[in-house]
């Protein structure tokens, strides 16, 4: 084996180790809390952008420039809103997965 093959085997073994970690309720709730924090931050950013754009009217003499400005504002607000809801859905999904794993563990343990 040469050096490049050894490095490739090390990389593959480290990737397998990270993929072999079990999914636990703690990891689900930790991921949900991180995603929830990002959702809150994205919501506050979206709210700030919308309030800023609401307070500054578009005032151009050229109608084409006004349309472009309006389109850019709409795109920016849409992207931040979409990011907010993506993080919210990830939070809900991870939280639900954690609850599901808790119920699966309690159902799979034999009662004596």
UniProtKB/TrEMBL annotation:
Pfam families: DUF3082. The chain crosses the membrane at residues 24-45, 74-103. Residues 1-21 are annotated as: Disordered. Residues 10-19 have a biased composition (Polar residues). It comes from the Bacteria. Keywords: Membrane, Transmembrane, Transmembrane helix. This is DUF3082 domain-containing protein. It comes from Cyanobacterium stanieri LEGE 03274.
């Amino acid at each position: 084996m040469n050096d490049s093959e050894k490095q490739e085997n090390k990389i593959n073994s480290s990737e397998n180790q990270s993929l072999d970690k079990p999914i636990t309720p703690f990891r689900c709730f930790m991921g949900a809390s991180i995603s929830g924090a990002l959702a809150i931050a994205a919501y506050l950013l979206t709210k700030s952008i919308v309030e800023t754009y609401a307070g500054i009217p578009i005032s151009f003499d050229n109608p084409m420039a006004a349309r472009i400005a309006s389109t850019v504002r709409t795109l920016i607000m849409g992207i931040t809103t979409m990011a907010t809801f993506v993080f919210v859905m990830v939070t809900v999904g991870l939280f639900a997965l954690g609850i599901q794993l808790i119920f699966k563990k309690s159902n799979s343990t034999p009662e004596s």
